[in-house]
Amino acid sequence: MVSTKDRLRRVAGDTMASAWTPATDGPGGSAKIKNGDLFRPPPDGRFGELAGFFKVFGDETRIKILHTLFAAERSVGELAGMVGMSQSSVSHQLRLLKDARIVRRRREGKTVYYALDDDHVKTIFDEGMSHVSERNGWSEG
């Protein structure tokens, strides 16, 4: 059975191996405390970047927008109708998602279409949904 951490490691292109390194005595070894720290954080601010990335997922409206984009790219007007919000509100949320590189946009004339930036986004969403469903005893579907 593949653990959630291993699935996320694959999603992140195995960058987690260098971003979050438990102090162990080798593969399959037990964690040892070295210099008073159980884990050695990366020196380059990756934890802050990761926290910012997950913070974007912390809003129910943005989650609804992402879920709507799973099937196909959509215009702001389509998204607004589907999630029951004004175009202005949806545009604001899409800007945050675009700035976090979770969605991308494409302009066709005066219409702007949004889509998921890549498959990682759906994988992360699906893993999160699986986690909360399991914790709450909900069936996935």
Brief summary of the model shown:
The protein is of the alpha+beta class and 141 residues long.
Radius of gyration: 18 Å
Distance between the termini: 21 Å
**Tally of separate helices:** 7
Indicate the overall shape.
globular
Mean pLDDT level: 81
Largest sheet: 3 strands, antiparallel
CATH topology of the largest domain: Arc Repressor Mutant, subunit A
Strand order of the largest sheet: 3-5-4
Could you say which structural class the secondary elements and strand pairing correspond to? Answer: alpha+beta
The CATH architecture of the largest domain:
Orthogonal Bundle
How many beta-strand segments? 5
- Annotated CATH homologous superfamily of the largest domain: Winged helix-like DNA-binding domain superfamily/Winged helix DNA-binding domain
Percent strand:
5-15%
| SSE succession | HHEEHHEHHEEH
- Sequence stretches where pLDDT stays below 50 over 5 or more residues: 10-20
**Could you name the CATH class of the largest domain?**
Mainly Alpha
